Automatic annotation (TrEMBL):
Mg(2+) binds at residues 328, 330, 405. GO terms for biological process: double-strand break repair via nonhomologous end joining. This is DNA-directed DNA/RNA polymerase mu. Residues 1-21 are annotated as: Disordered. Gap-filling polymerase involved in repair of DNA double-strand breaks by non-homologous end joining (NHEJ). Its cofactor is Mg(2+). Keywords: Magnesium, Metal-binding, Nucleotidyltransferase, Nucleus, Transferase. Pfam families: BRCT (PF00533), DNA_pol_B_palm (PF14792), DNA_pol_B_thumb (PF14791), DNA_pol_lambd_f (PF10391). It comes from Sphaeramia orbicularis. Residues 23-120 form the BRCT domain. PANTHER family: DNA NUCLEOTIDYLEXOTRANSFERASE (PTHR11276:SF21), DNA POLYMERASE TYPE-X FAMILY MEMBER (PTHR11276).
Length: 480
């Protein structure tokens, strides 16, 4: 780190060169720094002030409304913010309050670097006034952990989304999905609609639902849906592996209302996937734990390595985002040997069958064509070889069935471990931002729309973010 070469003053020396005339040439007119002495100490502050001025930065000795960047070495936000708020600055909400890393990076670059979220010292008790930290309308520009502070709202929105999807009403479905995703990203709980002014994607209807929940603890619109027979039935039917909204609707129209209706109706012909879905219903509707995911990883890793020693397996999907439980386990498996990845899945499936643990398999060979432009479809990995499996795994209670997804992209397209990480909203927005803001189409590799769909060499996930001009978002921050 650059920081280590800056001398750290241990003993107190006389106050820094306040008032000493400045001769350095100012290079950055429109920014003004203020270094907080707390924790930094006065002699280190003096040294850093000189360093910055020698590089053409304006450093103010006094904290006033002119300051644009407040730099603090004290990364404990609450005493710092208490102190800052006590200064009575009307422009405080506009200032960047950053830690020393922003300063050292700017010194190293000899210019002010862009303030990123990781530089900011966030106010621990944000009030409406200091809340101007803008929230992006794109999930890929927000950091969303698994901790959802607004579950009471997002659960309600998800019921509305499902209901709109059942009725094939796409606009409002998308609107509520986006609103839920924005609320999931907040490090605070919405307690009043007044605090939501600066939030994107919250429309009139969304706010009306929130208002009801704030006022009565529940939404009557949502309660009505939950009590609706059609909603309940479609929800039940689509909970079966292999049953989508279309099939569920068809069964509903025939007057079927329960699993036993479906299973005893002689006119219903279940396909192979649905038969397995019903057969293993109890097991696969039970959440999969991280430990079970790991155990499965070992089994598949072993199978892949038996085929080719340079096979690489990576956990992806919800578990890669740090979730404790999942509805399935997702893996990417590939090999640096180009073309060989295409034969990987069939051989792995075969091996699992020989081991007697394969309960169901639905394999889709690759339709990927590097010479064709990426599709606009939202599912990023649509074209790669993949399979949807049900495997038997042993846990403390004995054997159980678990849903497992494997995808096998060619190495150059998706160096491990990118893609299939999700969340779905995060990936949708990555592609939406690429298309609308950057004029690029995004499969797994970003590719410029002009000229002639040139594929850009994507090397790592970090490169993909950088190429799109985005701050890197860690997998555990993609739970949008
Ligand atoms: N995916 C995809 N195409 C599909 C299915 C899934 O590209 N036909 C990708 C999506 O990128 C999705 C990821 O696989 O984000 C994981 O999907 P899924 O397993 O359904 O969801 P998770 O986020 O893993 O959540 P859960 O823990 O419930 O499994
Ligand atoms: Mn998953
Ligand atoms: Mn999956």
């Amino acid at each position: 780190m650059f920081r280590s070469i800056l001398p750290r003053a241990r003993k107190r020396s006389k106050p820094a060169e306040a008032g000493v005339p400045r001769h350095e040439e100012v290079k950055f007119e429109d920014i003004r720094l203020y270094l907080v002495e707390r924790k930094m100490g006065s002699s280190r502050r003096g040294f850093l002030t000189q360093l910055a001025r020698s590089k053409g930065f304006i450093v103010e000795d006094i904290l006033s409304n002119d300051v644009t960047h407040v730099v603090s070495e004290d990364n404990q936000p609450s005493p710092l913010w208490t102190w800052l708020r006590g200064r009575g600055l009307k422009d405080l909400p506009r200032m960047h309050v950053v830690d020393i890393s922003w300063f050292t990076e700017s010194m190293r670059a000899s210019r002010p670097v862009a303030v990123e979220t990781r530089h900011r010292i966030q106010d621990t008790f944000p009030t409406a006034a200091t809340h101007v930290v803008t929230v992006s309308q794109y999930a890929c520009q927000r950091r969303t952990t698994t901790e959802n502070k607004n579950k009471i709202f997002t659960d309600a929105f998800e019921v509305l989304v499902d209901n709109y999807d059942f009725n094939e009403v796409t606009g409002p479905s998308l609107a509520f999905s986006r609103a839920a995703s924005v609320l999931k990203s907040l490090p605070w709980t919405v307690q009043s609609l007044d605090t939501t002014h600066n939030l994107p994607c919250l429309g009139e209807h969304t706010k009306a639902v929130m208002e009801e929940i704030l006022r009565y603890g529940r939404s009557f619109e949502v309660e009505k849906i939950l009590a609706d027979e059609r909603y309940q039935t479609l929800k039940l039917f689509t909970s079966v592996f292999g049953v989508g909204p279309k099939t569920a609707e068809k069964w509903y129209r025939r007057g079927l209302r329960s699993f036993s209706h479906v299973l005893t109706d002689p006119s219903i012909h279940l396909n192979r996937m649905q038969r397995s879905g019903f057969l293993h219903y109890g097991d696969i509707s039970r959440a999969v734990s991280k430990a079970e995911a790991r155990a499965l990883g070992n089994i598949i890793d072993e199978a892949a390595h038996a085929i080719t020693p340079d096979a690489v397996l990576a956990l992806t999907g919800g578990f890669r985002r740090g979730k404790e439980f999942g509805h399935d386990v997702d893996f990417i498996v590939t090999t640096p040997e180009l073309g060989k990845e295409e034969s990987l899945l069939p051989i792995i499936i075969d091996r699992l069958k020989q081991q007697g643990i394969l309960l169901f398999s639905d394999y889709h060979p690759s339709t990927f064509d590097a010479t064709r432009p990426p599709s606009r479809s939202f599912e990023a990995m649509d074209h790669f070889a993949k399979c949807f499996l049900i495997l038997a795994v042993e846990d403390r209670r004995g054997w159980r069935a678990v849903r497992v997804d494997l995808v096998s992209p060619p190495w150059i397209v998706s160096p491990l471990p990118s893609g299939w990480t999700g969340s779905r909203q995060f990936e949708r927005d990555l592609r939406r931002l690429a298309r609308l803001e950057r004029r690029m189409l995004l499969d797994t590799t970003p590719c410029s729309t002009k000229p002639r769909y040139r594929f850009l060499a994507a090397v790592t996930e970090k490169d993909i973010f950088a190429h799109l001009g985005l701050e890197y978002i860690e997998p555990w921050q993609r739970n949008a």
